[in-house]
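[User] Could I get a sequence and structure tokens?

[Assistant]
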Amino acid sequence: MPRCGRVVRLTLRFLRGQKGFTLIELLVVIALLGILAAVAIPNVAKFVGHGKEEAEATELANLQTAVIALLTDTGQHHLDDNYVTVDTEAEVQGVSVSTYTLHTYLIGLPYPLHRPYDIAQNGTVSPSS
């Protein structure tokens, strides 16, 4: 037990004169944080842009797959409408073949969509311009 008290006294004697960081230490830390931010911020922005592009590509593939499944299940080769543009849940529900709607094949899809999509009568899905 006496050994612990001796260590505490030595530590207190060592720290007695130190009250904070020097200006140089603070400037070095701020410079390092600035360098890290300068490197990280453009990369994060780039990753966000790539993520949005990937989300749109995945959404397009999901819509195309749903349209193909709708046509396959109904045994039809064409949708009821000649040409539609969809970007909301109500518009997706309007895409149909006989009594089947495209909405039943897109459970859990977030609405509104990332962008509008054109669906041709033959089932081809493409981004709307």
